[in-house]
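MODEL INPUT / OUTPUT PAIR
PAIR INDEX: 1
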Amino acid sequence: IIDQSTQYSNQVLQNSGLLSYWRLDDMPGSTTAVDTKSGRSGTYQNGTLLGQPGALSTDSNTAAGFDGVNDQIALPSLPAATDFTIEGWQKLDPSTPASTNNTLYGGSGTVRLMPRTAGFYVGVHIEGTEYVQPATTASNLGQQVHGAMVRNGSNLHLYSNCHMVTSKYSLPITYATHNAYRCPLLTL
C-alpha cells in the first residue's frame, strides 16, 4: 500500500531487497533508461517515446511509451534468483490488438510478465523449461494496470492491481534464468 503523501518512487526505493528500479522518467531524447537503485541502466531502442503521462496522478514524474512492435529497453543481466518479485505499471492503448507484444518485463528464455488485452501471461524459465501461468482478468485496455509476478520457492503468484489472479505451486526449487532482459512497454 502506497502512502499518497509520499512519492511512489521513494517508497519503492526504501525496499531493502530491491535490485533495480527503472523509473522511465528519463528526458525526451535520452537513450539511457536510468536504474535509480543500482546503476544497471538500460538502453532505449527503436524510438521509445519519453515524457509520457505517468501512472499515478499524485506523482509528477513521466513515463515511457512503447509501440508494441519493436520499441524496448535492453537491460544488463541480473543475478539468478529463486525468490523474486517483478512489478510495473502499464497502460495498453484501447486499439491494441491481442497479438501485440505487450511485454512488461522479460524475454524469451528468461522471465516474462506480459499483460494482455484481458489478462496476463507469466513464465519462468528454470533449467531449460518454461513454467507458464496465464490468467484472465478484466480488460487491461485504456487504464493504468499494476502487475506483479512473485516467485517464492515452488510458488508463482500473479497480482493485478493488488489482487492475486492466479498461482502455480509446482516450480522446481532452483534458480530461475535472468539474462539479457528485453523490456518492451515497461512504464514505471
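PAIR INDEX: 2
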Amino acid sequence: LNNPEEPKVLCVGNNPEKKDIYATALGLYNGRIVKIINKKNKHKITLIIDELPTMYFRGLDNLIATARSNKVATVLGYQDFSQLKRDYGDKEATAIINTIGNTFAGLVTGETAQSLEKQFGRNKQKRKSVSLSDSGESVSISEQNDTIIPASKIATLTQGNFVGTISDNFGQEIQEKRFFAKILLDTDKIKQEERLYRPLPVLYSFDGHAEAVRIRDLIIEYLSDPSNH
C-alpha cells in the first residue's frame, strides 16, 4: 500500500446486514494491513477508518503509538467511547483512546462527554459579578479554576459544531491547541452533487458459496501459522 515504487489505495467496506459473517475476513485483512504499512522507508500513508467498532484491527493501539515516525497517519471515526469499549474490550479501547493525539468531537453525552471534559482540562477564568444596593453598584472580579469545555456544552452542540484538541511538532508549535469551531457547508451545492451520484458497479462478489469456502480455508491457514500470532 505504501510501497514508494507502487503506492496503492485500498478501500475495504463492511456490509451491515452481514457484518458478523465478514468480521473474521476483514479482521484478517486489517491485521495484515497494519503489519505491512508500519515500516521504515515507506511512502507516507493515511489509514482512515470510519465506524471503527464495526471492524476489528488487531494491534491498532500499537500502530497509533509507533506509526507516526513511519509517516503513517491514523484517522478513526466512531460514535461513542462506549461502542469502542463494547467491541474492543476495556483495556484495548482505553489504550486506543489515550494514545490518540488529535481529537475532534461533535455532540456526545454521558461518559464520553465527561471524558472529553477531563481531556480538555481546566484553566483560570475571570468571573465578573455586579451587585446593587441602596448605596450604589459594586463590581467584583475574581479568578476561578474552571473547565474549559464542560460536558454540558459538549452534550448540546448543534450539527456542524465541533470541539477538540490538536497536537504539534518541533518547529511547528501551536499556541492554542484546543478549539471550538463550526464547519460551514454549502448545502445547495452538496444536494446538486448528490443528484449526480451513480451506483458503483459490482466488480467482484464474495456472496458465492465457493468463494466463502475459499476465504474460510485461507483464514484457517492464516490462523494456524504461529508467525501470524
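PAIR 2 NOTE: Residues 19-37 form the longest helix (19 residues).
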